[in-house]
Design goal:
Layout: H1 3-13, H2 15-40, H3 54-80, H4 88-115, H5 119-142, H6 148-157, H7 164-174, H8 177-193
Length: about 190
Amino acid sequence: MSRVKEFLVRFFKDKRVRFLIVGGLNTVVGIGVTWIVYVCFGVSIFASKESMPLHVIVIGTLTGQIVGTVHSYFWNKYFTFRSKKKSWAEFFRFVLVYAVQYGVNLGLTTLLDKLIAIPWLITVVVTLVCTLLSYFGHNLFSFRKKTEKAAAEDAQGDPSAPSDEEQRAEAEECGGPQGEREEADHDDRAMGQK
């Protein structure tokens, strides 16, 4: 394997890198959709907020936010966190993390505007805090992985739960001792059945 290919494989294996890539892509989608709405209302994307009608700002921002959230959900689900669950609860947890992040963004921006009033510094601090909040919220809450014991309990009562092979494949994808331990357990069970 060439060094460049090896680097890219390691680079994209890191969940944090994938999260930042999706965040950048999502920013482009959200802003792009907002601008498309502005243009549909005949407003220049370079117009100042003061010269825009309020309803255009509200509709544009809301549409950009909704499309951006749905776009972000699918990219984070399948690309960043590689969740295989089919669950409305997962989607609602995702939206809840976004709602909390939005509230923190609004509150922190308002607070920092009163304290330091340096727009670029406020943007940097709020972006950093909200990015960390979003990453940990989605990682630990939206797309959380169940513990081995909880997954086994669910599998007994849930016919759609992942099979041993699917769990083993996921563990191998994540690597580490967990995958090796599950493989050893599976081998022990197979030996006991013979």
